[in-house]
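2024-03-11 09:14:02 INFO queue: dequeued item DinB family protein, len=188
2024-03-11 09:14:02 INFO validating residues
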Amino acid sequence: MRAMSDRPARWTRATVYPDMWADPADDPRDNGAAPEGEPATLSDFLTNYRITLRMKCEDLDPEQLARRSVPPSTMSLLGLLRHLAEVERDWRNWITESDPLPKLYGDGDADFEGAVAEQAAVDAAYADLEREQAATDAVLAGLPDLGERVGRERIAVRELMVHRIEEYARHCGHADLLRECVDGRVGQ
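2024-03-11 09:14:37 INFO prediction written
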């Protein structure tokens, strides 16, 4: 394990703006015209935060992805991927009337605790996240009225969408710090 004094040098791949993750021309997030309307705006923000999280995890090996931040925290980039897959499933449970789906990884901090430095765990985390995002998106696509109250707790679709954006944004902030600890890469 690397000592806290062995911090990597800060760096960025961007050449145009030294404080950016990627040059604007290379940024995969939609930087075109702003979407029209509330549903499209919410969707655009969510999509961009999802892309940002993936960007923060790119080009790292399983050990780097599973590296914990600082003791006693269990947080790692791989743990964040697993956690967000779990959260997507939980959100879907909020908006459906059926019996809740079981946890993906178990109770407590199992999503973070099970984030081990193995390629199979990394592959599974990405597959789980992609599957759970698509499933939640599919349910929400059938609910175009943002004011509609759904699920057993009658949550407004708008509230769920804003909560999803907030959750990804918060964890992208964690991912910024985790990535900087791994290899010094910083940026937007």
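2024-03-11 09:14:37 INFO annotate: The domain at 35-183 is CATH 1.20.120.450 (Four Helix Bundle (Hemerythrin (Met), subunit A)).
2024-03-11 09:14:38 INFO item closed
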